[in-house]
Every structure is written in structure tokens, then in C-alpha cells.
């Protein structure tokens, strides 16, 4: 239960306008799935960073899966301390260990510091173009 509460606390920092989730059904489904991995970084008994790795089976690239990383959050009181790079390195290693031929993420942030962080973790913004759609 502590991971659920700790992750949701960080998600509240990522999306403060979202309603507070009380039902852990989806959390439990993520934890049980072989294709989904929720990473947390604990410091002194408190979850201070999280990422969400989606490994997606694929029929191209010799059936090598690919990864999508979402919901990258470091607690606002711990940003700039290297924890983001630490959890991202572990997340990427898990993708490579799963045989993924690439890992992707998108950010809605316009802050240069966010983009610099992702570049420092090995991501490039000049390889593909991302498009985004939501239901009407």
C-alpha cells in the first residue's frame, strides 16, 4: 500500500489538477503485468522518484519490443540531486534487459531544464516526430 500512496503523492506533483485516485485496481493490474513496470526510488523510507515503463510487443525489428516511458517524477524537494538520472538509468536498463530496441518518451514541459535532463539521460529529440491526439 505504501508504494501506491507514495506514487500517487508524486503524481499529484506532476498533475496537481487531477482528482485523487482512491481505487488501486489499475495500480494492482500494472504490478501484475509482465509488460508494465512501475519503478520507485526510496530514500529513508519515502518514495522520492518514480517512472513507468511500458514494454510493447512488436512485429517489426525481428519482433524486438520497444519501450514507452511515462510519468517521470522526482519529488520537488529532491530535484537536482541526481535521483532522476538514477531512476532513469534503471528504467532504461530494464528496457534493454527486456530486449527493447528503443525507448521513447514525450514531455509536455517547455522548460529547457527538463529537456536538458532527458538529453543527459541519452534521449534525442531529433530522431522522430511525435504526434498527440485525445478524444474529442
What does this structure look like?
With 136 residues, the protein is α+β, with helices and mostly antiparallel strands. It has four helices and four strands, in the order H-H-E-E-E-H-E-H. It has a four-stranded mixed β-sheet. Strand 3 (66-74), helix 3 and strand 4 form a beta-alpha-beta unit. The radius of gyration is 15 Å and the shape is globular. It starts with a helix and ends in a 16-residue tail after the last helix. The model has no long low-confidence stretch (mean pLDDT 94).
What is the distance, rounded to the nearest whole angstrom, between the alpha carbons of the first and last residues? 35 Å
Q: Give the overall pLDDT as a whole number.
A: 94
Q: Structural class given helices, strands, pairing?
A: alpha+beta
Low-confidence stretches: none
The rough form would be described as globular
The value of Rg in angstroms is 15 Å
Query: Helices and strands, in N-to-C order?
Result: HHEEEHEH
Oligomer: single chain
Q: In which range does the helix fraction lie?
A: 25-40%
- What fraction of residues sit in β-strands? 15-25%
| Largest sheet properties | 4 strands, mixed
User: Could you give the order of strands across the largest sheet?
Assistant: 1-2-3-4
Number of strands: 4
The count of helical stretches stands at: 4
